[in-house]
Amino acid sequence: MREHLRSGRAAVAVSAAAALVAATACSPGSAPSGGSGGLAGVELLVAAKWTGVEEDNFTEVLSGFEEETGATVTYESTGEDTGAYLGPKIEAGEPPDVAVLPQPGLLAEYAAQDALVPLSGDAAARLEEDYTDYWQDLGSVGGDSYGVLLKAAHKSVVWYRPEAFDQAGVNPPETWDAMTGTTAPTLSDAGITPFAMCGASGWTLTDWFENVYLAQAGPQKYDRLADREIPWTDDSVVQALRTLSDVWSESDWMAGGTRGAVQTDFPTCVSQVYGQEQAAMVYEADFVAASAQEAGATVGETARAFPFPAVGERAPVVVGGDIAVAMSESEGVQRLVAYLASSKAQTDWAGLGGYLSANSGVEAGAYPDEFTQELAQTILESGDDVRYDLSDQVPSRFGATEGKGMWAVLQDFLRDPSDPGAAAQRLERAAANAE
């Protein structure tokens, strides 16, 4: 049986095909402008956080640029802390030609330091022609376009174990009230722990908050909060925290109780659902598929997903991802960014698996399995309602630093969610300190 992922009116079906695994490349989409050849002897350095299969797939995409232009492109991994890698190189005046940033907050910081080169020519044209206004704005600072979203992650899906749902006689919920009022308590009454929580990885808790906040407060208020136009003590924040407490206050609903929830990292929480069978559900992005497979599950069969439940009128669509920026004015840099931003390059990338694109020119058939195809379609069909991960838009000291800011406050709130107002005040103080 196939379950459906719904976001608004968009349906995202989970097939039996394994997600996020290598597959043969599909037919190319539109070719990037700029002609061919002309860069023989040019050497360019690209830096991103990817390793393993992600690195292999990206370097294969880069090889297409080398074949088209004659340039030589070297890839270097930044490691998980992209800022720690780039900071010294920027200070020394030796940045990579192109960097792939995991956070728009970093893009804004580097633009303020004049460490980025605005997109121009074919690179700017690709951004304008193939990406919606929202994605264009995401990569812009002060009216100048600096970055293009290369690789997306769909962060509005909840993964579950069908056997556990069948045993309890429940179906995937479409609303928050159904999940907290029927699905979770019915699972618990059947002796099945509803959730595995990844609380030791603070970023997963920010993703919980962002989905609830976007669905409850709406995209406009979400933007205002990200831009510091409203404080974190706003009633909408308090209400989102109060909604989260519907789950976070139920110690019996979490594998290992509250203590276990705070001490379990990602991807260990995934193995608690698939493999260890200690819980029925785990919330996180499409990339859960890889960890579920490592635990022995088959995506679409023993590992399925449903959309993050609607808190209000519609289900949220929150997207994370990696943004390419130019950091030098060397010959060929703008052509490389244009190539990476093109539907041709991203169609090739999609065919390799483990990839989602926000480029409107990448067709669903480019992806190797139905699950990924329909996740990608959801991102495109969400139009102006889709939003980028809020914690990655704010300064990294607030939104993306272990033991600080949002991560620390939400971990404490998971430990004791009894006072949403106090948690909101702590978030506001942390946001102010990060400025």
TrEMBL record:
A Pfam family this chain is assigned to: SBP_bac_1
Keyword Transport in annotation: yes
What SUPFAM superfamilies does the annotation carry? Periplasmic binding protein-like II
Write the record's keywords in alphabetical order, separated by commas: Signal, Transport
Q: Does the keyword Signal apply?
A: yes
Q: Which InterPro entries match?
A: Bact_solute-bd_prot1, SBP
PROSITE patterns (alphabetical):
PROKAR_LIPOPROTEIN
Extent of the signal sequence: 1-25
Please name the PANTHER family in this protein's record.
ARABINOSE-BINDING PROTEIN-RELATED, OSMOPROTECTIVE COMPOUNDS-BINDING PROTEIN GGTB
Q: Which family does it belong to?
A: Belongs to the bacterial solute-binding protein 1 family.
Protein name in the entry? Alpha-glucoside transport system substrate-binding protein
According to its UniProt entry, this protein's organism is Streptomonospora salina
